[in-house]
Specification:
The protein is built from six helices and no strands. The chain has about 180 residues and is mainly alpha-helical. Helix 1 packs antiparallel against helix 6, helix 2 packs across helix 4 and helix 3 crosses helix 4. The longest helix is centred in the middle third of the chain and has 41 residues. It is elongated, with a radius of gyration of 17 Å.
Protein backbone atom coordinates (compact mmCIF):
# COMPACT_ATOMS: atom_id res chain seq x y z
CA UNK A 1 0.00 0.00 0.00
CA UNK A 2 1.47 3.36 -1.02
CA UNK A 3 1.96 6.15 1.49
CA UNK A 4 -0.85 8.20 -0.09
CA UNK A 5 -3.29 5.30 0.04
CA UNK A 6 -2.30 4.70 3.68
CA UNK A 7 -2.94 8.39 4.38
CA UNK A 8 -6.29 8.10 2.60
CA UNK A 9 -7.30 5.11 4.75
CA UNK A 10 -6.10 6.77 7.97
CA UNK A 11 -8.03 9.94 7.15
CA UNK A 12 -11.18 8.04 6.22
CA UNK A 13 -10.95 5.97 9.40
CA UNK A 14 -10.53 9.12 11.50
CA UNK A 15 -13.51 10.77 9.80
CA UNK A 16 -15.65 7.69 10.38
CA UNK A 17 -14.54 7.34 13.99
CA UNK A 18 -15.43 10.94 14.83
CA UNK A 19 -18.73 10.69 12.95
CA UNK A 20 -19.71 7.48 14.76
CA UNK A 21 -18.74 8.97 18.13
CA UNK A 22 -20.83 12.11 17.60
CA UNK A 23 -23.74 10.18 16.10
CA UNK A 24 -23.87 7.81 19.06
CA UNK A 25 -23.38 10.58 21.62
CA UNK A 26 -25.49 13.40 20.14
CA UNK A 27 -27.58 11.59 17.48
CA UNK A 28 -26.27 14.02 14.88
CA UNK A 29 -23.21 14.41 12.68
CA UNK A 30 -22.22 18.08 12.57
CA UNK A 31 -20.85 20.00 9.60
CA UNK A 32 -17.56 20.52 11.46
CA UNK A 33 -17.01 16.77 10.95
CA UNK A 34 -18.37 16.18 7.46
CA UNK A 35 -17.17 19.28 5.59
CA UNK A 36 -13.48 18.87 6.51
CA UNK A 37 -13.88 15.15 5.75
CA UNK A 38 -15.11 15.95 2.25
CA UNK A 39 -12.27 18.39 1.62
CA UNK A 40 -9.71 15.93 2.98
CA UNK A 41 -11.04 13.21 0.70
CA UNK A 42 -10.86 15.49 -2.33
CA UNK A 43 -7.41 16.79 -1.41
CA UNK A 44 -5.89 13.36 -0.90
CA UNK A 45 -7.57 12.09 -4.07
CA UNK A 46 -5.96 14.98 -5.96
CA UNK A 47 -2.56 13.69 -4.86
CA UNK A 48 -3.44 10.03 -5.45
CA UNK A 49 -4.78 10.74 -8.94
CA UNK A 50 -1.98 13.25 -9.66
CA UNK A 51 -4.41 15.83 -10.98
CA UNK A 52 -8.10 16.56 -11.03
CA UNK A 53 -9.78 14.06 -8.66
CA UNK A 54 -12.42 12.92 -11.15
CA UNK A 55 -13.26 9.69 -9.29
CA UNK A 56 -13.53 11.49 -5.94
CA UNK A 57 -15.70 14.28 -7.35
CA UNK A 58 -17.89 11.71 -9.07
CA UNK A 59 -18.19 9.69 -5.87
CA UNK A 60 -19.10 12.72 -3.77
CA UNK A 61 -21.59 13.99 -6.35
CA UNK A 62 -23.24 10.60 -6.79
CA UNK A 63 -23.41 10.08 -3.02
CA UNK A 64 -25.15 13.43 -2.63
CA UNK A 65 -27.67 12.50 -5.33
CA UNK A 66 -28.29 9.09 -3.73
CA UNK A 67 -28.77 10.58 -0.24
CA UNK A 68 -30.95 13.54 -1.23
CA UNK A 69 -34.21 11.60 -1.74
CA UNK A 70 -33.73 9.84 1.61
CA UNK A 71 -33.36 13.20 3.35
CA UNK A 72 -36.39 14.58 1.50
CA UNK A 73 -38.49 11.56 2.52
CA UNK A 74 -37.37 11.84 6.15
CA UNK A 75 -35.51 8.55 6.27
CA UNK A 76 -32.03 10.07 6.57
CA UNK A 77 -30.73 12.97 8.58
CA UNK A 78 -28.75 15.75 6.90
CA UNK A 79 -25.57 14.70 8.71
CA UNK A 80 -25.94 11.16 7.36
CA UNK A 81 -26.25 12.55 3.82
CA UNK A 82 -23.18 14.74 4.26
CA UNK A 83 -21.20 11.85 5.74
CA UNK A 84 -22.11 9.66 2.77
CA UNK A 85 -21.03 12.50 0.44
CA UNK A 86 -17.66 12.74 2.20
CA UNK A 87 -17.25 8.96 2.04
CA UNK A 88 -18.01 9.15 -1.70
CA UNK A 89 -14.92 11.35 -2.11
CA UNK A 90 -12.81 8.57 -0.60
CA UNK A 91 -14.30 5.57 -2.46
CA UNK A 92 -15.25 7.17 -5.77
CA UNK A 93 -18.37 6.53 -7.79
CA UNK A 94 -17.32 2.92 -8.41
CA UNK A 95 -17.17 2.12 -4.71
CA UNK A 96 -20.33 3.94 -3.72
CA UNK A 97 -22.69 1.09 -4.59
CA UNK A 98 -20.94 -1.25 -2.17
CA UNK A 99 -20.90 1.43 0.56
CA UNK A 100 -24.66 1.85 0.18
CA UNK A 101 -25.30 -1.90 0.08
CA UNK A 102 -23.04 -2.76 3.02
CA UNK A 103 -24.41 0.27 4.89
CA UNK A 104 -28.00 -0.83 4.28
CA UNK A 105 -27.19 -4.29 5.62
CA UNK A 106 -25.51 -2.80 8.70
CA UNK A 107 -28.39 -0.34 9.16
CA UNK A 108 -30.92 -3.16 8.95
CA UNK A 109 -29.06 -5.13 11.59
CA UNK A 110 -28.87 -2.03 13.81
CA UNK A 111 -32.60 -1.42 13.39
CA UNK A 112 -33.49 -5.04 14.16
CA UNK A 113 -31.25 -5.03 17.22
CA UNK A 114 -32.70 -1.75 18.43
CA UNK A 115 -36.28 -2.95 17.92
CA UNK A 116 -35.57 -6.20 19.76
CA UNK A 117 -33.91 -4.31 22.61
CA UNK A 118 -36.92 -1.98 22.91
CA UNK A 119 -39.40 -4.84 22.62
CA UNK A 120 -40.97 -3.34 19.50
CA UNK A 121 -39.87 -5.80 16.81
CA UNK A 122 -43.36 -6.74 15.57
CA UNK A 123 -44.64 -3.13 15.26
CA UNK A 124 -41.40 -2.11 13.53
CA UNK A 125 -41.72 -4.96 11.02
CA UNK A 126 -45.39 -4.12 10.36
CA UNK A 127 -44.58 -0.42 9.87
CA UNK A 128 -41.65 -1.32 7.60
CA UNK A 129 -44.04 -3.33 5.44
CA UNK A 130 -46.46 -0.40 5.25
CA UNK A 131 -43.58 1.91 4.31
CA UNK A 132 -42.41 -0.45 1.55
CA UNK A 133 -45.96 -0.57 0.13
CA UNK A 134 -46.04 3.24 0.27
CA UNK A 135 -42.75 3.49 -1.63
CA UNK A 136 -43.56 0.81 -4.20
CA UNK A 137 -46.99 2.30 -4.97
CA UNK A 138 -45.54 5.83 -5.09
CA UNK A 139 -47.63 6.94 -2.13
CA UNK A 140 -51.01 5.58 -3.24
CA UNK A 141 -51.15 2.87 -0.55
CA UNK A 142 -49.42 2.09 2.72
CA UNK A 143 -48.12 4.69 5.15
CA UNK A 144 -45.19 7.08 5.15
CA UNK A 145 -43.12 7.10 8.33
CA UNK A 146 -40.45 9.72 8.95
CA UNK A 147 -37.77 10.36 11.54
CA UNK A 148 -39.51 13.57 12.63
CA UNK A 149 -42.72 11.71 13.56
CA UNK A 150 -43.36 11.77 17.32
CA UNK A 151 -42.29 8.49 18.88
CA UNK A 152 -40.38 7.38 15.79
CA UNK A 153 -37.62 4.88 16.45
CA UNK A 154 -34.39 5.63 14.66
CA UNK A 155 -30.87 4.28 14.63
CA UNK A 156 -27.64 6.26 14.38
CA UNK A 157 -27.18 5.64 10.66
CA UNK A 158 -23.70 7.15 10.67
CA UNK A 159 -22.64 3.86 12.26
CA UNK A 160 -24.09 1.95 9.30
CA UNK A 161 -22.42 4.28 6.79
CA UNK A 162 -19.10 3.82 8.59
CA UNK A 163 -19.49 0.04 8.52
CA UNK A 164 -20.34 0.19 4.82
CA UNK A 165 -17.35 2.40 4.05
CA UNK A 166 -14.87 0.20 5.90
CA UNK A 167 -16.33 -2.98 4.41
CA UNK A 168 -16.03 -1.40 0.97
CA UNK A 169 -12.43 -0.39 1.58
CA UNK A 170 -11.38 -3.89 2.58
CA UNK A 171 -13.85 -6.02 0.58
CA UNK A 172 -14.89 -3.99 -2.50
CA UNK A 173 -17.15 -5.74 -4.98
CA UNK A 174 -18.50 -3.13 -7.37
CA UNK A 175 -17.19 -2.71 -10.89
CA UNK A 176 -14.92 0.25 -11.46
CA UNK A 177 -13.92 0.63 -7.82
CA UNK A 178 -10.60 2.41 -7.54
CA UNK A 179 -9.76 1.06 -4.11
Amino acid sequence: MSALVSLQLATLTTLLGVAVFTDLRERRIPNKVTVPGLFAGLTIATAVEAGVPVAALGGAGLAFLVALPFVALGGFGGGDAKLLTAVGAFVGAGGLFSVVLYGALAGGLLALGSAMRRGTLIPVLVNSGKLMVHLITLGRHGERFALDRPGAHSVPYGVAIAAGALATWFVPFSLGSSL
